[in-house]
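Subgroup meeting minutes
Present: P.N., E.W., G.H.
Scribe: E.W.

1. P.N. recapped why we're keeping a running log of single-chain structure predictions: easier to compare across weeks, and new members can see raw inputs and outputs side by side.
2. G.H. added today's entry (84 aa).
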Amino acid sequence: EELLRSKVALETWLGSAPTSFAAPFSIVDGRLKSLAQECGYQIGFGDGTGAVGLGADSLNLPRIEIRGDWTLDVFAKVMNGQLQ
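Output recorded in log:
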């Protein structure tokens, strides 16, 4: 219910349907992935960090925290560290 309700709300506000979601508390399991697919999501961010490989599960991709208080230099260092 929460996946669908938030998708409908975002579509109303943005004018187009979101295709990705971030799992609460980074917890992704088979049930969540199945429900997300039924709701039309194509990409999900769950647990793990770092770069994504070609065989990655598109509904459980690693996430990288981006903070609003970072300078551009800090952002670049974090991204560089995550992608190595």
